[in-house]
Amino acid sequence: MAEMKEISPNAPAGAKLLNWIDNRFPLSQLYNDHLGQYYAPKNFNFFYIFGGLSMLVLVIQILTGIFLVMHYKPDAALAFGSVEYIMRDVPWGWLIRYMHSTGASAFFIVVYMHMFRGLIYGSYRKPRELVWLFGCGIFLCLMAEAFMGYLLPWGQMSYWGAQVIVNLFAAVPFVGPDLALLIRGDYVVGDATLNRFFSFHVIAVPLVLLGLVAAHIIALHEVGSNNPDGVEIKATKGADGHPLDGIPFHPYYTVHDIFAVSMFLMVFTAIIFFAPEAGGYFLEYNNFIPADPLKTPLHIAPVWYFTPFYSMLRAITSEMVLVLIACVVGAAAVSVWKIKMPAVFKIVIVGAAAVVTAMMLSIDAKFWGVVIMGGAVVILFFLPWLDNCAVKSIRYRPSWHKYLYAIFVVNFIVLAYLGVQPPSPIGERVSQVGTLFYFGFFLLMPWWSEMGETKTVPQRVTFTAH
Questions:
Q1: What is the mean pLDDT of the segment spanning 254-258?
Q2: Are 260 and 52 in contact (CB under 8 A)?
Q3: 51-80 average pLDDT score
Q4: Mean of the pLDDT values across residues 2-28?
Q5: Residues 6+ apart with CB under 8 A from 92
Q6: What span, in angstroms and rounded, lies between the C-alpha atoms of 62 and 269?
Q7: What digits encode the pLDDT tens for the residues 319-351?
Q8: pTM over 0.85
Q9: For residue 370, what pLDDT is reported?
Q10: Measuring CA to CA, how many Å separate 442 from each of 237, 379, 392?
Q11: Half-sphere exposure (Cβ direction) of 335: Cα atoms closer than 13 Å
């Protein structure tokens, strides 16, 4: 048991209260560890606002979700009507609902930007591998949360979108039909599905999400924040033991983040009040029509933040499977031919390639589409071990790396756009090329990240006061 700290009897009442709490709960220590005495690099730039904005949107989603649950009915016969009741009859219900729906899209925007910053500045590299892994876990939970929440309004796109996605699991060999039945809770998307998704959306996934967010922040503050130079500020400390290139997070970055929050809330509220549907991208117009199992919409597409992965799913056709087989065989051949290894390893690689080829030929292309869609997210978890570049930050990598990252971003946006559009022969070809580039970017990273001449990384962070 820790020794109780004493305080002067003449101390102010506030100091006495704080001392009483500190003797029973480490409030001051937590404040110092994570704000007051947490030293962050002094060269943070624009890209470092999105972590704080992610926390803000998470709080908005939790608070608005609590108020929505007070009036929502998770019943197939009542769900759509309860949402309309919230929008029309509950005082300020329309505002709470639009904050929640806009917040879902805002969450993905800030998280995508947060992940992009980690990608270009090497925030996934040693010693921050766990920070990245927890972040990828948050991203997965966020996708699950958004997918399950999308069903709850029980509109046309909610119903048919869930129908399409859940049916994809039926393509899994052997266990597919049973797996789809388990997810639906019935033979069709219905009341049981709605109740299951509601339970997960409101209770199960948020608990996991909050745990991962806490782990993400604890891991980050244990190893320290990265910076645009990729320099470890803990390596150069002053006489007081604090990093020379660091400044206390509070008040310097709290003020910095308050300004970013102000700018964000201006845009956020403008969308809520003037364009909450965002042209059908944030709230699809078909979702204002009650779910009808007997009437299929002309074009079923997920919400915009899922569309890059949906494009990859649609890109996998029977002929695309042949291209993937060629890639697998080619990779195995190059590995055996170019890389020096014992003969037994070469036999294993050739055997594995033969097994994968046989599986890809014997299993329906729809299943491999599901594998590719899931693999596009799962591959992010392996990023810390795929990047072999000698430096972390894009600033000191070969110049052509910047163009490669730019192409990756453009490719991701193109895939997102194609996922919203109805299927077309040209769109299919472009999405197939985009899918190959997406996976090639990561799977070939151990090779291309070592290429080129890197620039000299400074010993201290580069910073100009402004």
A1: 93
A2: yes
A3: 96
A4: 87
A5: none
A6: 17
A7: 999 999 999 898 888 888 877 778 888 888 889
A8: yes
A9: 92
A10: 36, 8, 16
A11: 19
| pLDDT, position 7 | 84
Mean pLDDT of the region 1-25:
85
Q: Which residues pair with 40 in a beta bridge?
A: 247
Tokens for 445, please give them: 């990273």
Task: Give residues with Cβ within 8 angstroms of 147, minimum separation 6.
Answer: 162, 165, 302, 306
**Residue 259 burial (C-beta neighbours within 10 Å; 0-12, 13-18, 19+):** exposed
Rounded CA-CA distance 310/373 in Å is 7
Q: Residue 343: its pLDDT value, please?
A: 81
List, in sequence order, every residue forming a beta bridge with 41; answer none if it has no partner. Answer: 246
In this prediction, residue 332 carries a pLDDT of 87
Q: What is the mean pLDDT of residues 402-412?
A: 97
Q: What is the pLDDT of residues 282-299, one digit of tens each?
A: 999 999 999 999 898 888
Tokens for 292, please give them. 């009808």
**Average pLDDT score over the chain:** 92
| pLDDT exceeds 60 at position 1 | no
- The residue written with tokens 């399409």 in the block is 164
439-447: long-range pairs with CB below 8 Å, 24+: 439/372, 439/375, 439/376, 439/379, 441/404, 441/408, 442/379, 442/380, 442/382, 442/383, 442/386, 443/331, 443/379, 443/386, 445/383, 445/386, 445/387, 445/388, 446/386, 446/387, 446/388
Distance CA 382, CA 389 (A): 15
Alpha-carbon distance 174 to 362, whole Å? 13
Phi and psi, residue 294, nearest 5°:
-100, -5
Which residue type sits at 271?
I
